Amino acid sequence: MKDIIENCMGASEAACKSSCPMNTDAKTYVRLIGEDKGKEAIKVIRETLFLPGVLGRICAHPCEQNCRRGKEDSPIAIATLKRYAADNFDNEEDWDISVKSKNGKKIAIIGMGPAGAQGAIDLAKEGYEVTIFDRSSEFGGMMRVRIPEHKLPREVIDREYSLLEKLGINIQFSTEIGKDISFEKLEKNYDAILIATGKNAKSSFVFDELTLQLINNKKVFVAGNCASARIVVEAMSEGRRAAKSIDRFLNGKDLKEGRSLEAEGGYQTKLYLPTEYLPEGWNSFGKNERVIPKIVNGENLGFTKEEAIKEANRCLKCECKLCMKECSMLNDYTDCPKTLFTEYAEKGYENVDPKISYSCNMCNQCTLKCPKSLDLKSNFSDLRSKYIKDNGGKSPMKGHKAIEAHQYLGYSKLFNTTNTAPNGKKTKYVFFPGCSLPSYNSVAVGNIMDHLQNKLGGEVGSLLKCCGKPPKALGQDELFKERFQTVQEELDKVGAETIIVACQSCYGIFGTYGKQNVISLWELLPEIGLPESQLGIGKGSDVKFNIHDSCPTRNVTKIHDGIRWIMEKLGYEVEELENSREKTRCCGFGGMIVPAVPEVAKKVMNRRAKETTTGHMVTYCAACRESMENGGADALHIVDLIFGDKYKKSKAKKRNMGPVKQWLTRYKSKLELNKRES
User: Fold this and answer.
1) What is the rounded CA–CA span in Å between residue 145 and residue 158?
2) 105, 512, 549, 609: most buried, per Cβ within 10 A?
3) Is residue 194 domain-shared with residue 55, that is, in the same domain?
């Protein structure tokens, strides 16, 4: 859980926002410009910046220096896009000039550059009476003095600085502290002072880096060049930080509690997507070249509408929500894994709805999508175990009573059987069909047994019993151990060396906990061959199949290859799904969520079934087959093809059965296995 909380990038900001000292949401306003929503874009910009036109022209743009796109080709022209929004959509009538009621406290600010102006704006909005003193007779501080007018037109400065007057801030032009008014008088007449002058005064101040409060004078704060800022947007950030400190100081609050330089200034985000995780089409034609605005007589004209939209649509819209896009259940409960598991850590799992952990299909697809391979499945599994322990060994989900009933019957003598190899032969192999296949097709279970006996010298016994996966999936760890032990004892009793499984969950259970060798029927058949009568039976069929691979064996290539070998030998045409083999998606049955959270299971089933490109899905798990049919596909188990007649479109039908018929079929499977013992 700690690994997810510390390393999940889902809540991390894009580099363009995190590296901006004012934390301006560049990703959002760039997207809006790309959607031709300039008015909405300038609204986003003005949430943090009162100088969009100025910064659009002269900002040193650390956002662009850290733009993820720039690591591949050229960064997005974020500053120029900001200028486009400001020049074309920034109406003064839309400016936020709301202020809180006056609180009776007075603030003096020395210097009207970007740091002093930003501090003044923030404090005025909080209800303080703010007066700015500046020795210049015009707005802008050193920006007006040092930046040529063709790069920064003075009317842009004056227009955007007019916000100060609209907020009721008192401005004392042509007033030099120490000459026209003494600093001591300011100390006497004002509750706090913010010094935001140029860098020449820097050496005389010793201040706290976070709060910007002077060490030797608690009512005095600094910001801008006289503190540590080097560029305009950094100066604005310090002005805002100083204003926050002043507000806390005058309200008797701790100046540092809950604050950090990272939260109140530019920082390096954790978010970084490797090239292979970038959005589809990111490098399509025309997107790798940055749009350059026209320059006439040395003047940058900025973007036209068409240029701005084109440039904005180069944006990668950086975010790491790949698991959220993949998982059908996470979005029901959180915005990203970091948020969810932080909630578990802070509240305690016992105070979080257990439904969340019991909604996980345990398919591991989230981990496959995660650039950091964070393991959500194991964490949800651990949480289930805790809920079980707290609930006296029972699942807290009412729907899981159906699983308890299944387990009661699944371990009863009525539906279990153990058979040694016939005719007194050594039981070298044991065929273990699992639970779902015997409940679906009893005839096929018997046919498989006949084929194995024929190909393996008659040294095959059988065991019909649940492997224990259901209690394991629910988090009933002790119950699983007890039940698996009964299975292991049966295998030991017949002296089996190798277990042949038809179920992928059984494959995982025996591979992890069993003593004997385990092999999947689907990797064994390519070694021993198919029934001769079935070779090529599918040739000429009008059906083309998609293959749904099972989650539990997503990493077992031999099984994937075996299934495709079988389909080829049968003569059926296959069209691969985009999400197949190791990238397969869950059918919806995983994690025992069907009886507990059916609405999530149904979403998963429907999504997967809709991925079929042919309308016909073949599976090698009976539960997966049932899910695909529930989702709307014509679905068969591969045994239907191995032991059936040529399959054609005309044979498509519903094959799902109710629980009573399924248990009856399982009982018939028991009889099929028993009659082959002697």
Assistant:
1) 14
2) 549
3) no
**Which residue type does 73 have?**
D
Q: Is 298 helix (H, G, I), strand (E, B) or coil?
A: coil
If asked whether residues 364 and 473 sit together in one domain, one would say: no
Count CA within 13 A, CB hemisphere, residue 3.
10
How many structural domains are present in the chain? 4
Q: Is the per-residue pLDDT at 328 higher than 90?
A: no
- DSSP string for residues in 591-615: GG-TTT-HHHHHHHHHHHHHT-SSS
Boundary-marking domain end, from 396, 417, 432 = 396
Contact between 551 and 590 under an 8 Å Cβ cutoff? The reply is yes
CA-nearest of 649, 650, 656, 654 to 626 is: 656
Alpha-carbon Rg of the chain, whole angstroms?
Answer: 35
Distances (CA, A) of 167 to 102, 190, 239, 250, 623: 12, 19, 17, 21, 67
User: Is position 652 within any domain?
Assistant: yes
Residue 111: which of 89, 85, 87, 130 has the closest Cα? 130
Q: Are residues 445 and 581 in the same domain?
A: yes
Predicted confidence (pLDDT) per residue in 107-128, tens digit: 999 999 999 999 999 999 999 9
Q: pLDDT digit string (tens) for 37-65?
A: 999 999 999 999 999 999 999 999 999 99
Count Cα neighbours of 343 within 13 Å in the Cβ-side half-sphere: 14
Segment 207-213 shows an average pLDDT of 96
Classify 460 as helix, strand or coil. Answer: strand
83 plus 226 within the same structural domain: no
Strands (E), 114-218: 129-133, 170-172, 192-195
Distance CA 151, CA 148 (A): 6
- The tokens for 588 are 């919806």
Express each pLDDT in 560-593 by its tens digit. Answer: 999 999 999 999 999 999 999 999 999 999 999 9
CA–CA distance, 530 with 203 (Å, rounded to integer): 87
Residue with tokens 């032009």: 173
Strand partners, 194: 109, 221
CA–CA distance, 287 with 201 (Å, rounded to integer): 46
- Per-residue pLDDT for 268 more than 70? yes
Residue type, 486: T
CB 589, CB 616: distance < 8 Å: no
What residue numbers bound the domain in which 381 lies? 322-396
* pLDDT digit string, tens, across residues 414-437: 999 999 999 889 999 999 999 999
**Same structural domain, 85 and 101:** no
Kindly report the pTM of this predicted structure: 0.84
Q: Which of 358, 360, 434 is nearest to 399 (CA)?
A: 358
Pull the structure tokens for residue 477: 């760890």
How high is the pLDDT of residue 676?
Answer: 84
Give the span between the Cα atoms of 206 and 213, in whole angstroms.
Answer: 9
Burial of 241 (0-12, 13-18, 19+ CB in 10 A): buried
For the beta carbon of residue 576, count every other beta carbon within 10 angstroms: 12
Q: Are residues 328 and 471 in the same domain?
A: no
In Å, how far from its chain's centre is CA 230? 36
pLDDT at 506 over 60: yes
Structure tokens at 97: 């000039």
Mean pLDDT of the region 81-86 = 98
**480 and 444 fall within a common domain:** yes
